[in-house]
Amino acid sequence: MTPVELSRTVLRAVRRAVDEGELRVAVPVRAVVTPPGPGGSGDYATNIALQLARSAGRPPLQVAEILRPHLSRTEGVAAVEITGPGFLNIHLDRAAVTDLVSRIRGAEGTGGTGDGRDPSPLPYGHSDTLAGQVVRLWIPYDIRAEVLADALVRIVASQGGRVEVDHISAREPDTSGQFDTPGRLGNSLEPGEAVPFRPVPAPEDPTPLGPDALRWALLHPAAHDRPRITADLLVQRAANPLFRVRYAHARARALTRNAAALGFTGTPGDLGDLSDLCTSPSPSTPLTPIPTPDVTTPLVTALTEYPSVLARAATHRAPDRLARHLVVVADGLLAFQHTVLPRGDEKPSAAHRARLALAEAAGTVLAGGLSLLGIDAPVYL
């Protein structure tokens, strides 16, 4: 369940409470759902009870108590706690995480066409929602337009559609009335439509960056934004998003190798308790367990949202959406990866196998997304 879906779930809980006469309030348009703050618990938290308390004429804690059973009965929600002055802390059903990992792993290495001729399952995130749709891109003879069009051929194909690319000479008159708007791509695919596509060109020759950094430099910004051609994309450090994405994929593969050396493999299942991380404010202070947000939440959310991001990248002809989301997946994996392998004399457990499976699923998504962008996903980095 993504934050957007959970926000809708919270609003439905409010609506049910109003319909049953438990609350007399106007159902708000939006419910804010965020990771829990200090003193919170679970996967997500919402302040909806505090938001409604004044109009309901009740203390926030009473509003939270009214909403809690409606939220708890929602599919995908395991439990709801009330903390502080009335925050609702939501624990998601971990079975949903197991299903997600199994779905990604089950699609790994598959390549169904989505046209009915290939019965094999589609790779995770791929679909046939654009089956039969063809779009013609009219692009100038420009390296950025060429790279974006090349990526769009694969991204649209991942949703069952097809892209045909034609070139327009800079000397030809602009009769479409649309070429003066850089990156104007429309909002939907129409069979056979001709879409003029003139992204903002690179300010200088990007070829010295090499093929992977070149493509990232041209694909990561939106088509209407000017790309930055800088040697920073070649530096292996955390400030470089391309490095983080490729490094996260390499880490996922390294975890598989290290786990094999310890005699276990990844198996979807219960991730176990990840809240026992320790911190020490100074070297002289003993390590003290403190409550921490579940480090799996950002990664699971990013993996859950990947299919919808890929679909929007195809329908809006926007490879930058996919590139930016891969950074989110990578950051989620890098924050989680330290929990995967046993520590010290600890023996591999079912939880370690489940965490390895989740890390491997993230690696699969990163590899698939980079492939659609035409960028190499290294096993070693």
Automatic annotation (TrEMBL):
Q: Which Pfam families match?
A: Arg_tRNA_synt_N, DALR_1
Q: Which organism is it from?
A: Streptomyces phaeolivaceus
* Key words, A-Z: ATP-binding, Ligase, Nucleotide-binding
Taking every annotated instance into account, which residue ranges of this chain make up the domain Arginyl tRNA synthetase N-terminal?
A: 4-92
State which Enzyme Commission number(s) the record gives: 6.1.1.19
**By what name is this protein known?**
arginine--tRNA ligase
Which catalytic reaction applies to this protein?
Answer: tRNA(Arg) + L-arginine + ATP = L-arginyl-tRNA(Arg) + AMP + diphosphate
PANTHER family documented for this protein: ARGININE--TRNA LIGASE, CYTOPLASMIC, ARGINYL-TRNA SYNTHETASE
Instruction: Quote the SMART domains the UniProt record gives.
Output: Arg_tRNA_synt_N, DALR_1
